[in-house]
């Protein structure tokens, strides 16, 4: 019961463990690649959503500025040209800020996508290293078994 295993049994056990390690490495690689793709897709979707929201906000501000100006004219309120110019400038400022926010968010989404891709690549590389190490261990065991 307490006797050590024979060389054949020990090599078999080691081969089984190396095989298990190789399978786990492949599984980790696949998971990392899947998660990377999921993060990339999520970042793309969120970028699109933010772009749409920003465009809607800009359009709403422009529309409201026009509506206020038209209503003031309709009810006989005289609006000085400087007030109209100021409203137009503010609307343009909001549009510029909105564009800057949209651009910044798109940059952040791209940055996040790049980081996720980098992580997936590193994980894949590490999985390959584990696979190579496992193969070398199996080869070494096989060489020692034939000696």
UniProtKB/TrEMBL annotation:
One Pfam family matching this protein: YtxH
InterPro entries tied to this protein: Desiccation-related_membrane, YtxH
Protein name: Uncharacterized protein
Lineage: superkingdom: Bacteria
Protein species of origin: Brochothrix campestris FSL F6-1037
